[in-house]
User: Fold this.
Amino acid sequence: MFGQLIEKLKQNPKTIVFTEGEDPRILEASSRLLTSNFLHPILVGNEEKIKTAASETGYNVDKATIIDPDNFEDIEKMIATFCELRKSKGVTEDQARETLKHSNYFGTMLVKMGYADALLGGASYSTADTVRPALQLIKTKPENKIVSSCFILVRPGATGQNEVLAMGDCAINIKPNEDELVEIAEETVKCAKLFGIEPKVAFLSYSTNGSGKGEDVDKMANATKKTKERNPELPIDGEMQFDAAVSPKVAEKKFPGSEVAGHANTFIFPDINAGNIGYKIAQRMGNFEAYGPILLGLNSPINDLSRGCTATEVYSMAIITAALADTK
Ligand SMILES: CC(C)(COP(=O)(O)OP(=O)(O)OC[C@H]1O[C@@H](n2cnc3c(N)ncnc32)[C@H](O)[C@@H]1OP(=O)(O)O)[C@@H](O)C(=O)NCCC(=O)NCCS
Assistant:
């Protein structure tokens, strides 16, 4: 799976900002990236501290670009751009100068101003603190109304082929409405395709094809209908329970005639509770590796790491994030 993304990047190499430049996991992943030429790391932080941390941990990041917010030659231009972007909020020059001392905002501005193609943060920042600067400064693509997210789940299959699934939105929108679910599904489909999935999209619920009643059932049924109307070429169905989505036997009984039920590989959850719990069950009890949250709908790719991440996860997420840079 990563081979495909790396090939894409080799044809059009990218640069990626790491907001936590001194973190040993970031240094390890960067040193690995620096052994090839498809993705160049930009480490945000104090140069001396980064170099000391690198020599203490034994990772070679000599060829990485290091940018220190306290010592950035274009800081006045960045402050002016920040004030312009946030003028509707009445942000003053002093407030901008103070905010840009924080590497999450500084790093996001590096992407916004074109010094880098993508950003990966969150080794120590919370999800909200990594995502908020992106929402405020990078903003949604013109054709999108919301930023959402998906996870890609990968499990080696018995025949040696990976089982690859997509799940959205498990991390950003707390209680999406019908139209937001349509957007989440369309963005999750685009991301799934990037990972070689031929999407069969199931809108999940506690009800299958009208078997249960309730507001959330109606929400998922209506979102299915709208998504189908907008994307007649895609296999999409719902609302359906998870067993009907993945078990051909159950699908035969609960949702006969559905081209998705029993074979779904792209799952749209009704809200963040269901999604977040759902992907973690697959990860912890189903032995799937989980990549994400992958943010969808932003003008430039910004992604969030789990604070418990490993260097290998940083490396993988950096490749995924950069590969999203040319996705329309
Ligand atoms: C993403 C999240 C952090 C945004 O929260 P927040 O910063 O408090 O949001 P606010 O309502 O203050 O909005 C901040 C800005 O982001 C924008 N925004 C918020 N949610 C957005 C979305 N889904 N898409 C696009 N823009 C969004 C707002 O419009 C606002 O922009 P503005 O400052 O230019 O007006 C919030 O939705 C959240 O906490 N989600 C759950 C995250 C989580 O805990 N996930 C589980 C672990 S992975």
In short: The chain has two domains: 2-139+298-327, 148-289. Residues 127-128, 131-132, 135-136, 140, 146-147, 171-174, 276, 293 surround coenzyme A (CB under 6 Å). The CA atoms of residues 237 and 258 lie 7 Å apart. The chain is about 45% helix and 15% strand.
